[in-house]
From TrEMBL:
Organism phylogeny: Bacteria, Bacillati, Actinomycetota, Actinomycetes, Kitasatosporales
EC class: hydrolase
Protein name: Carboxylic ester hydrolase
The enzyme's E.C. designation: 3.1.1.-
Listed SUPFAM superfamilies: alpha/beta-Hydrolases (SSF53474)
Presence of the UniProt keyword Hydrolase in the record: yes
GO MF assignments: hydrolase activity
One matching Pfam family: COesterase
Length: 479
């Protein structure tokens, strides 16, 4: 296609050129905030100054500084993307739209996962073509990660990564009409850490009016650190760097140095007299809040927001099977993780054993992890939303078992994503070490799940009965 045929859109910040193909139009690396450099990495997101001329929106942006993640035998590159692609201007969004024609279509804003330390909108799993094909304007967001995004420092606002997502939603509100989207019909959705951020938005007063609907895929409505827990991480990071735990002291330190100290933060014991470790030691970063989002929904826009929320049935297997830990787990390992996440680990383990007669230690460990990391917080968030929202809560359970790694990966964390984005037939997702395994995806499952997400973005109804505390309806997807 010639350059003359490429679409150009006028936005409040300036003109941008995109690419047109059979699925619609795509505009990449659109900045929603100024580049976070130096001391600005620890400041709230600042307004972007805009540009003159026509900006090239045909190439992907840099990504937030992040370490390389290794998931053993499982190829997780489609999930994590290219890793750190250095560059100043990474607080950006990509937009995939049927056409930038002023048609006011539903908008979906996706917030990626990655444990608050990795990921970007460049990951292959977040392919927007199916959403554009089905009349949705899809916006995918990058945000600050790790120390710049989530370390609690004196002299800096907390939860800077969450502030970035808020800034991106404001950009959508002010700009998406130019790309054929309806700013009054925005669905924010996220997976894993992105889902936890989405859940927090439901309890954030500043998010009022920025979205109409929300989808929380395998998040944790009780996954925030207390200020005491966050300060334990901060003290360890400052000691590893040899500086005071302040934004001023951290400002001159290059991003590369922040990445080198991350191993010193891994596995910190974050248990306190009042709280367990909500992330079971899998990440030293999370939101920092005095009250968990599931307990603070009434403070934000949640009562006026439709919610679709759910988990996978074997979430914890992602953290055990690829590394060979499912078979090597001992009873002592099971007790150790239960002690980390439960005030009464023996009672919790008794309940898990009763639910899984004959379960191996690895299966019990997977169940403990899945419940602590995702299921309990999801249930609390769904129940809290149902109490205040008047029938606009819909809950799902995703049970399709990936055949990866000799069929052992199962319905693990992240396995639902190819179905949500309707790309489950892609060859690079199939093979024994690929996310979906060697077996073909079940016919019609991706169309059903993706279609439910699209329907929810249009109407707030994914196609099944709403959830209520007295009638806890849960739709089973891909059992």
């Amino acid at each position: 296609m010639s350059r003359q045929a490429d679409p150009v859109v006028e936005t409040p910040a300036g003109s941008v050129r995109g690419l047109r193909d059979g699925s619609g139009e795509r505009y990449r690396a659109l900045p929603y905030a100024a580049a976070p450099t130096g001391a600005g990495r620890f400041a709230p997101p600042a307004a972007h100054p805009g540009w003159s001329g026509v900006r090239d929106g045909t190439r992907p942006s840099p990504t937030a500084p992040q370490p390389t993640r290794d998931f053993g035998r499982l190829d997780m590159v489609p999930y994590f993307g290219p890793g750190w692609v250095p560059g100043r201007e990474y607080l950006t969004v990509d937009v995939h739209t049927p056409a930038a024609d002023g048609a006011r279509r539903p908008v979906m804003v996706f917030v990626h996962g990655g444990g608050f330390v990795t990921g970007s909108n460049r990951a292959a799993l977040y392919d927007g073509r199916a959403f554009a094909r089905d009349g949705i304007v899809l916006v995918t967001v990058n945000y600050r990660l790790g120390i710049p995004g989530f370390l609690d420092l004196a002299g800096a606002p907390v939860n800077r990564g969450l502030l970035d997502v808020l800034a991106a939603l404001r950009w959508v509100h002010d700009t998406v009409e130019a790309f054929g989207g309806d700013p009054g019909n925005v669905t924010v959705f996220g997976q894993s850490a992105g889902a936890t951020l989405t859940g927090a938005l439901l309890a954030t007063p500043e998010a009022e009016g920025l979205f109409r609907r929300a989808i929380v895929q395998s998040g944790n409505g009780t996954g925030a650190f207390t200020p005491e827990q966050a300060q334990r991480v901060t003290a360890t990071a400052a000691a590893a760097l040899g500086v005071e735990p302040t934004a001023e002291a951290f400002a001159p330190i290059p991003d590369e140095r922040f990445l080198t100290i991350l191993p010193a933060l891994a596995g910190l014991d974050l248990r306190t007299g009042t709280a367990r470790d909500p992330l079971a030691g899998l990440s030293p970063f999370s939101l920092v809040l005095p009250v968990q989002p599931a307990d603070a929904l009434a403070e934000g826009p949640a009562g006026d927001v439709d919610l679709l929320i759910g988990t996978n049935t074997e979430e914890g297997r992602l953290y055990l099977v690829p590394q060979g830990h499912l078979e090597s787990t001992t009873e002592a390992d099971v007790l150790a993780v239960a002690t980390r996440v439960h005030a009464d680990p023996q009672t919790a383990l008794a309940a898990h054993r009763a639910a899984r007669p004959g379960g191996t230690p690895g299966e019990l460990r997977s169940a403990v992890l899945g419940q602590a990391l995702f299921e309990s917080g999801t249930r609390r968030l769904a129940q809290a939303h149902a109490r205040i929202s008047g029938g606009s809560t819909h809950v799902y359970s995703f049970g399709y078992r990936s055949t990866a790694l000799e069929g052992r990966l199962g319905a693990a964390h992240t396995v639902e994503l190819p179905f949500v984005f309707d790309i489950a037939d892609k060859p690079w997702l199939h093979g024994d070490t690929c996310l979906l395994g060697p077996a073909p995806a079940p016919p019609g499952l991706a169309a059903r799940i993706h279609g439910a997400w699209v329907a929810f973005a249009h109407t707030g109804n994914p196609g099944w009965a709403p959830y209520a505390p007295q009638r806890p309806a849960v739709e089973i997807l891909g059992a």
